[in-house]
Amino acid sequence: MSETAPQPKSASRRAISRPIFERTFNINSEQAIRVIRDSYHRLMVSLYAIDVILRIIGREETVDEIESIVSQMIAECAEQLQQEKMRLEKLKADNGISETPTYTHPREFVAKIASPQIAQFVELIRLLDQLMIVMDTLWLCQIISNKHCIAARLEWQQRLQRLANKIVTMERHAHQAAYEQGHGEEVRLARQESGLNVEPQPSLDTDAPKE
């Protein structure tokens, strides 16, 4: 019976020490909580991959182009959120409303900021939460109808989720292009060395059912 030669063990690779901010926020609205629960973690991985991994394998032009597009997409969404928030705040002021509701199940969200674009999207989530609070105030005070409020909540939630999906798709296409050009092993090692496979989950309870 022939013996199989022992396979050499792959050398263990040291994880790269990378800068990160850890910021803790209270998130009140169900819509912002759903964006975090359903989209944040995968988006965080994709944004980090765009910002760091493709640079490691030397694809500077691709990274710069994608980062520019991503930043512009996030900035445009932020501007839309700000404009709607200002419009609703004026409606609130015009009706003499000074109250702000509390929420029955707010969540603590610990954001791991590993790239500038992640910071941008986290601020987008916070802006969505602020918009929902103003909208809920107007609904509770009977300034906007239940039907309108339900539709608007869903629309803004899905707007952020669609944006997250677009960014994830862009990152996947960029990685696929790197594989097709013979950089597959470099991408795999870069992800491993950067700790991307063990990226921490956002600290947010996920017991609420999806809708």
From TrEMBL:
The name this protein goes by in its record: DUF1845 domain-containing protein
Composition-biased stretches (Basic and acidic residues): 182-191
Source species: Methylomonas methanica
Ranges where the record places region Disordered: 179-211
Source species, domain of life: Bacteria
